[in-house]
Amino acid sequence: MAEIIIFLIIVFFSVIIHEISHGYIAFKNGDPTAKYMGRLTLNPISHIDPIGTLLLPFILIIIRSPILIGIAKPVPINPYYFRNYKKGMISVGLAGSISNILLGIFFAFLYKFFPSGTFSEYLKMGSFINFILAFFNLIPIPPLDGSRVVLVLLPYNLRIKYETIERYGIFIVIFMAMIGLLNWLSPLSYSLMNFFINL
């Protein structure tokens, strides 16, 4: 039970950093929306999303998915503030996953100072989880971050059709998890965790 609680704390902390990174990079690109709405904060209450943060992990536990992930409430972005629309959208879209990759590397290197014991296992868990979150969010299914990057690169007529997928996005992700299409996330993340631990 304690391990599950620690696991959920790490996941929630990691997705908060993920969302704050989106908001911060948006701010650096000229969009103050997230800052004005109080979303550049570590306060977890500001980032809870009923579906992504609570329902999605619960369903994945019920179906015994080999991966367990969560999504915080997306940080509000207004791209009309961006000084350069395409650069702003791409950099904001990638910011969350980059933050998780950096956290994954950080936990892996911190493990070197605590190579044994319960705390060390939590550090490995933190590294593993963050790599999973990074690559999961790069999947190009709206509303995941990878779709934000793809959206900018598509011609207008395809972009409109692509955006309509978003209302079904969370259900597509759950279905993919149920039939094993997300199973590649675990071995990839485990390999990266071990790579940085042994570097």
Overall tally of structural domains: 1
Give a short account of the largest sheet. none
Strand content: under 5%
Strands, count: 0
SSE topology string: HHHHHHHHH
Radius of gyration: 17 Å
Report the structural category.
Answer: mainly alpha
Low-confidence stretches: none
Distance between the termini: 32 Å
Report on the architecture of this protein.
The structure is a single chain. The longest helix has 27 residues, at 2-28. By secondary structure, this protein is an all-alpha fold. The chain is built from nine helices and no strands. It has one domain. The chain is globular and about 50 Å long. Helix 1 runs antiparallel to helix 4, helix 1 packs across helix 5 and helix 3 (50-62) runs parallel beside helix 8 (169-178). The mean pLDDT is 88.
What's this entry about, in short?
With 199 residues, the chain is mostly helical. The chain has helices at 2-28, 33-36, 50-62, 85-111, 118-137, 145-153, 156-163, 169-178, 185-197.
List the helices and strands and how they pair.
Layout: H1 2-28, H2 33-36, H3 50-62, H4 85-111, H5 118-137, H6 145-153, H7 156-163, H8 169-178, H9 185-197
Helix pairs in contact: 1-4, 1-5, 3-8, 4-5, 4-6, 4-9, 5-9
